[in-house]
């Protein structure tokens, strides 16, 4: 039974810890797991891959022992993993955690994953040129009133909302039916139902208030990765022979730059510089997306380094509103 099927109208709690790369999200998550009956679900498009540990900043064995993570380290780098697959797997994991009487704690910085989770995925097909040409030919022969009458038989709800003198919308509604075999109204209702996330979500955004501090963390972390064997990790992937730089796994920030170094497209210093710059650009894109999360609480990770109790209290208050 999913949370939405529970007879109790009170939604179960879930916590999302979001933020740019290198902002300290994992530290906050581990702290919460120590104090709350919570289980972590990773929201990271690189942590999903096996044999990609250093460059993805994958939690080490010690952290995973304290705070196990779901949706990490399960896919070979040669495989692709869609946003739709993440949403399916994350919802299943959230339901399992909730059924165990625990709180789903989603942690990561892949904003497309969060968008799919919060907003659902569009079920409407893209335009099909051949179908459009066919419908335009029919309209030229029969007229748009006849096309509107046709829509009435297929999707009366859509026809009631679309004026007979609106050929663009009539054509789109008919096109959707031609492509999918389902009425536009049916697909829109499915999307609306899917969009509803059956949890009372507390969104926490972890980020240092000083942008320069985030840049320093990114640079230090990239150098730590190199010192820990990042190049050797990528070389093992490079030498496999079945991977290439166009695959989603190898397009990940850091991995792409080291791959180019191994492929003699860059020298060492250029690889380092470009890896740091690319990570900063990623953080900037993440922050741009996060600023649109109007219902989120921003937490200064600079202050948290000295006082983490406030984080626990904030999360606890949100959870206490919705006891499991």
Describe the structure.
The protein is of the alpha/beta class. The chain folds into two domains: 3-121 and 208-320, 3-Layer(aba) Sandwich (Rossmann fold); 129-194, Orthogonal Bundle (Histone, subunit A). The protein contains 15 helices and six strands. The chain has helices spanning 25-35, 61-66, 83-99, 111-119, 129-142, 144-154, 156-161, 167-180, 184-195, 211-227, 230-238, 255-262, 268-290, 301-304, 309-320; strands spanning 13-18, 38-42, 69-70, 103-107, 200-207, 297-300. Strands 3-2-4-1-5-6 form a six-stranded parallel beta sheet, with helices on both faces. Helix 2 links the parallel strand 2 and strand 3 (69-70). Helix 3 (83-99) packs across helix 4.
Strand content: 5-15%
Oligomeric category: single chain
Distance between the termini: 15 Å
Mean pLDDT, to the nearest integer, reads 90
- Runs in which pLDDT lies below 50 for 5 or more consecutive residues are 4-8
Radius of gyration: 24 Å
Q: What's the CATH class label of the largest domain?
A: Alpha Beta
Compact overview of the structure:
With 324 residues, the chain is of the alpha/beta class.
Give me the secondary-structure topology.
Layout: E1 13-18, H1 25-35, E2 38-42, H2 61-66, E3 69-70, H3 83-99, E4 103-107, H4 111-119, H5 129-142, H6 144-154, H7 156-161, H8 167-180, H9 184-195, E5 200-207, H10 211-227, H11 230-238, H12 255-262, H13 268-290, E6 297-300, H14 301-304, H15 309-320
Parallel strand pairs: 1-4, 1-5, 2-3, 2-4, 5-6
Helix pairs in contact: 3-4, 5-6, 5-8, 6-8, 10-13, 11-12, 12-13
């Amino acid at each position: 039974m999913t949370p939405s099927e529970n007879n109790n109208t009170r939604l179960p709690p879930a916590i999302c810890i979001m933020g740019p790369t290198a902002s300290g999200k994992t530290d906050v998550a581990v702290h919460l797991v120590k104090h709350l009956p919570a289980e972590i679900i990773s929201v990271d498009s690189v942590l999903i891959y096996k044999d990609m540990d250093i460059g993805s900043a994958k939690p080490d064995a010690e952290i995973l022992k304290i705070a196990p993570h779901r949706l990490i380290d399960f896919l070979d780098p040669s495989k692709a993993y869609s946003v739709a697959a993440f949403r399916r797997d994350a919802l299943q994991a959230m339901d399992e955690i909730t059924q165990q009487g625990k709180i789903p704690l989603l942690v990561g910085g892949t904003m497309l994953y969060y968008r799919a989770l919060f907003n659902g995925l569009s079920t409407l097909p893209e335009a099909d040129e051949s179908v459009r040409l066919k419908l335009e030919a029919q309209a030229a022969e029969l007229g748009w009133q006849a096309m509107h009458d046709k829509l009435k038989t297929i999707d009366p709800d859509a026809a009631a909302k679309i004026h007979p003198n609106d050929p663009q919308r009539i054509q789109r509604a008919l096109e959707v039916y031609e492509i999918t075999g389902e009425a536009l109204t049916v697909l829109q209702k499915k999307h609306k139902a899917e969009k509803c996330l059956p949890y009372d979500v507390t969104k926490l955004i972890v980020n240092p208030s000083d942008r320069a501090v985030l840049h320093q963390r990114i640079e230090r972390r990239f150098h730590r990765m190199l010192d820990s064997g990042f190049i050797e990790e990528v070389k093992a992937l490079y030498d496999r022979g079945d991977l290439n730089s166009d695959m989603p796994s190898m397009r990940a920030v850091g991995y792409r730059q080291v791959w180019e170094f191994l492929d003699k497209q860059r020298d060492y210093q250029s690889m380092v510089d470009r890896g740091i710059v690319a990570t900063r650009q990623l953080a900037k894109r993440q922050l741009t997306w996060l600023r649109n999360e109007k219902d989120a609480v921003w937490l200064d990770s600079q202050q948290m380094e000295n006082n983490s109790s406030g984080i626990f209290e904030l999360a606890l208050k949100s959870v206490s509103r919705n006891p499991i």
